[in-house]
Amino acid sequence: MTYVLMGDSLAAGQGGDYDQGFAVQTAQHLGKGRQIILNNVGVSGSRARDLLGQQLSQTLDSRPDLVLISVGGNDVTHLTPLLSLKSQLSSLVEKLLASNCQMKIVLTGSPDMGGVPRFLRPLRDIAGIRSNMVNTVFDEVIKTYQLTWAPLSKETGPSFREDPSLFAPDKFHPNNRGYELMIQTLNRGLDQAITDQPSHCPSPER
């Protein structure tokens, strides 16, 4: 199975040890019982629009069977208009599926930016509200294209809000313990995509 990770600083593992981050740990999980070819094309600072450039080209060159898209946090902090975000995500998904209609795609959406210690209140509260708005767009795209959701905000947000020790010294990115928590959500999403995500190929004409 060829597996590609697209995204931002979370995909790149910033804040922790790379071997404890998304790419290596999810690939090791997927590799239980199958051979995995991993290509991590994530770039720190990326927004959804940035994935349509070099990351998409590198992904298509890999001819993946499974793609994890970890993006959204920078769209929260940079105030990406929601309509633009939906258009960018839809275009990305359509281009991926046009290359392989059997491809499985998992999206994380934004983590809960309302728990980031670097943000002081009321900015932290505003970031939390924006996270919810951005993730509503992700949810719409996932439902439209019958993709799989690995909801970082919903499943890990409360823990990050309650425990600042899950963050790296920069008080923005997760540390190894924070990544470990997030990876549990990712692995469940990846497993679900492999077993349950339907084919995106057109039905044969009768």
List the helices and strands and how they pair.
Layout: E1 2-7, H1 9-12, H2 22-30, E2 37-40, H3 54-62, E3 66-70, H4 73-77, H5 82-99, E4 104-107, H6 123-145, E5 148-149, H7 152-162, H8 176-196
Parallel strand pairs: 1-2, 1-3, 3-4, 4-5
Helix pairs in contact: 2-8, 5-6, 7-8
Give the DSSP E fraction (strand runs of 2 or more residues): 5-15%
Total of DSSP H or I helical runs spanning 4+ residues: 8
Major sheet details: 5 strands, parallel
Helix content: 40-55%
Taken from the alpha-carbon principal axes, the silhouette is: globular
- Order of helical and strand elements: EHHEHEHHEHEHH
Structural descriptors:
five-stranded parallel beta sheet; 206 residues
Structural write-up:
With about 210 residues, the chain is an alpha/beta fold. It has 8 helices and 5 strands. The protein has a 5-stranded parallel beta sheet with strand order 2-1-3-4-5, with helices on both faces. Helix 2 crosses helix 8, helix 5 runs parallel beside helix 6 and helix 7 packs antiparallel against helix 8. The mean pLDDT is about 95.
Quick summary:
The protein is α/β, with parallel strands linked by helices and 206 residues long. The chain has helices spanning 9-12, 22-30, 54-62, 73-77, 82-99, 123-145, 152-162, 176-196; strands at 2-7, 37-40, 66-70, 104-107, 148-149.
